[in-house]
Amino acid sequence: MLKNTIKELSTTILNNQSDFDTIKNTIDEIHTHYLETTNIGDLGNSMQNLAAVPTASGMALSLNHAAACLLDYRRTAKFLQAMVSLIREKQQQHPNETINIFYAGCGPYAPFITLVAPLFKASEVQFAILEINAASLQMAEKLIDKLQLTDYVTEYHTADAVTFQIPDAKKYHILFSETLDALLYRESYVPILWNMLPQLNENCAVIPNNVIVQASMTFPQKEGEDVRKEKEAAVILNVREAVKINNGSKTLPNAFDPITINLAGDEKYSTMIVDTKVHIHNDIWLYRNESSLSIPLEMEIVYPLDAPNVTFFYQLKPSVELKLKN
Ligand SMILES: C[S@@+](CC[C@H](N)C(=O)[O-])C[C@H]1O[C@@H](n2cnc3c(N)ncnc32)[C@H](O)[C@@H]1O
Known about the structure:
Elements: H1 2-15, H2 20-38, H3 47-50, E1 53-55, E2 58-60, H4 63-68, H5 73-93, E3 99-104, H6 111-114, E4 125-131, H7 134-146, E5 153-158, E6 174-176, H8 189-196, E7 205-207, E8 210-218, E9 230-238, H9 239-243, E10 259-262, E11 271-281, E12 284-286, E13 297-300, E14 309-315, E15 321-325
Parallel strand pairs: 3-4, 3-6, 4-5, 6-7
Antiparallel strand pairs: 1-2, 8-9, 8-11, 10-14, 11-12, 11-13, 14-15
Bound molecules: S-adenosylmethionine.
The site of S-adenosylmethionine has 26 residues, from strand 1, helix 6 and strand 4.
């Protein structure tokens, strides 16, 4: 039975978190099963499957690109580990209760159901799924059906998570929404949390728990130094802090407050690096360059400085984007 095969492959990933080759081979094997089961490859590269879908504030990935996220190996392995351990924690906190999970943005493979549910009984975990891309949701439904996981899913919604009102929102123990890009560009994690967190129970846990966009300065590498020196310059955006101001009654602002970094001083810098630090859960983080989500942006600092100050701000309307002005 395919469900059992996936259960074994998921377990292999969980048991080999620090062995990249095993993670890669196992996820490739899962991918082969999912390709065969969904026939996604037969859809080809039609516009429908390649075009991003606009949301109320940002863009959602096409079916093909959302499917490809599975192959972001370290990302998938770490999110899987986080999801399974969070479910177990919630089971400890709520013995004999079914753990309810709201999955916003599942993509065509809904990996954080299809890899997770086989590890539990349907009486232990129940999922509600929401996806803005109708073709992706249809594919996810088909895969869930073929894997015989329909007992684990209570609701399917084709809707925009930026504006969606969650039915019976207080019952959820976990919100899962991997709707991120590096620098929080395009995809709508921030407006999704802005909309959904005030609706949910205050103890509802979120995966990823937070994203911090941070600027660091590097110094020219001196002779004899193995690595160049680097220092943190400023937190440009701490998502969970920023969305806290919404108690449910506020509309999404046009942008969050700007942050200015002063580059003048005695020391000369080589570059400025902007990192996307993804805090998945507890001590599980995505570090620089481990995933497409944590690729840094590096900018050279040219002297003499045109202007001593660099100002960043995170725009939310008309669509999300980290902006820089100097
Ligand atoms: C980065 S993909 C991740 C897919 C899958 N969950 C995974 O982790 O491999 C994000 C998914 O969220 C969906 N999405 C993005 N923004 C959304 C929104 N505002 N409302 C609903 N779905 C959204 C996209 O269409 C895409 O399928």
